Amino acid sequence: MDCEVVFEHDERQAAYMMARKPIPPPPPSLNVVSLIAISGGFPGRKGNGEPGSKMIRTGLQRAMDFASGTRA
Asked: What CA dihedral angle connects 13, 16, 18 and 21, to 10 degrees?
């Protein structure tokens, strides 16, 4: 599924910039959720499983803050 169904364009770009990864050409998939969870404190190692709602919420808040800062 295209991630722009859930995330705004600025939020997607902010997630990749915070992770210091190159921004892929559109349409990216919902794998951006793992980048957002990592910025929320999820370690993202192989044996850690899936991120929880708290990590995703914290990472999404940081991504939205970063996106609003880049808009300004």
From this structure: -140
C-alpha triplet 6, 16, 71: angle, nearest 5°: 75
Return all residues near 36 (Cβ < 8 A) that are at least 6 apart: 15, 56, 59, 60, 62, 63
> Six-digit token pair at 19?
């992770």
Residue range 3-25, pLDDT digits in tens: 878 888 888 888 888 888 888 88
Give the predicted TM-score (pTM) of the model: 0.73
Tell me how far apart the alpha carbons of residues 63 and 16 are, in angstroms, rounded to a whole number.
Answer: 9
List, for residues 29-48, the tens digit of each pLDDT value. 887 888 889 888 899 888 88
Nearest CA among 4, 3, 6, 9 for reference residue 67: 9
